[in-house]
Amino acid sequence: MTEFQRKPKLSFWSIFNMSFGFLGIQFGFALQGGFMSRIFQTLGASQDSIPALWIAAPLTGLLVQPIIGYMSDRTWHPRWGRRKPFFLVGAILSTIVLFFLPNSPVLWVAAGCLWVLDASINITMEPFRALVADKLPDSQRSYGFVMQTLIIGVGTWIASNLPWLINQLGVSNEALPGIIPMSVKIAFAIGGVVFLGSVLYTIFTTSEYPPDDLKEFKKENEASKGFLNGFNEIFYSIGKMPKTMKLLGVIQFFSWFAFFAMWSLATPALTTHVFHAPAPVESAFNMADEGSKALFMAANKAYNNAADLVGSYMGMYGLSSMAFALLLTFYAAKRSINRKYIHMFSLFAGGLGFISMYFIQEPSQLIYSFILIGISWGSILSMPYAMLSSAINPKKMGIYMGIFNMFIVIPQIIAATGGLNYLYHVIFGSAVINAMILAGTSLIIGGLANFLITDKKVITHQAEDTEVWS
């Protein structure tokens, strides 16, 4: 193996092409994040049971991402490369589930589909994160991760608005009890098509660098092959993770706890507190009586209209994250940036956005809350990964990106298994809108935790023409 490896700077279009697959990934995540709680409520889930139904998302990430990272680090094919085979498999599986999920006949089927969908998205997503670090010199990694965030923002905004837009085009957002509206079904189908198409675009427009010494690469893989060796390496890498990675994990913990609260409870919180249109409970109505049934249908219509608007307003966090990422893209392309302070103040902005929801009387004002949340989202998707990529061994980029996902999924597992419901009930009160106050508080704590990051190379990287490491 050669002593040094050099990576040239890439053009705008090269970085765009390698990041474009995130458009589809975010279509999947945005539809899941914006409308799974609505699907669960439509199929009969109670408000307090929703976070537990969401446990599939973080738990599959905890299991899948380190394994996929390890496997992709050890993969090489002359035509398909290292990460691209995983892009393709995950995209195909995700597309199939996106078509089927909104047609779930009962609650347990929808919950099971969420397990499969999140596992499939994770198969695609982790190698995309590693690809940026594989292809770019350290001086361009902030730029690369910000470019991903820009595309994620576009995907979030479009996907979050799809059910509302489809309803505006004449497709009904109403349905009989226990049936998902057709507007939601069509939105998920469109998401499936976009997911696969955007990932295929990246696969066919992006090449990957081969291992520096292919013979040595094969020799190392042969010496360490086997299921047991794989798990040993994962756990060994966990034990040897750099100090900066652990400190970034503290920040990630509070950041992703907050966003899990939004994804799982924003729809019931905002439809109830801001729109005054909670989801009607079928058992509370005598469906055999025409008058009672009419009341249920009116309440259901009001809820679905409110849920459409919540999804649409939620899309603003994607749009503002896109604008924020665009500013960072132009700036980071030419200058060094202070990743630490950008991330800190971005999380503060998101925290204020969540807390402001409690005080909103006019629903359209939610736009401003989600704009602030989008600033934090844009930073969460770029700055921690840029800082991490400057602190870890490039040869283990995939496995460490996968392990880093633990700091994303563990807070979500804690939230899903009762932590979210318990904390907002005990600290702020039983009204579900208080979950948003807890989310804001968590983001502010995450922002303050940036003071733990002290490694100057991680905080600010000076731009250079090429990057060299030993």
UniProtKB/TrEMBL annotation:
It is a multi-pass membrane protein. The chain crosses the membrane at residues 12-31, 51-72, 84-101, 107-125, 145-166, 186-204, 247-266, 314-333, 340-360, 366-387, 399-420, 426-453. Its main location: membrane. It is found in: Membrane. It comes from Pedobacter polaris. GO terms for molecular function: transmembrane transporter activity. Gene3D superfamilies: MFS general substrate transporter like domains (1.20.1250.20). GO terms for cellular component: membrane. This is SLC45 family MFS transporter. It comes from the Bacteria. Keywords: Membrane, Transmembrane, Transmembrane helix, Transport. Pfam families: MFS_1.
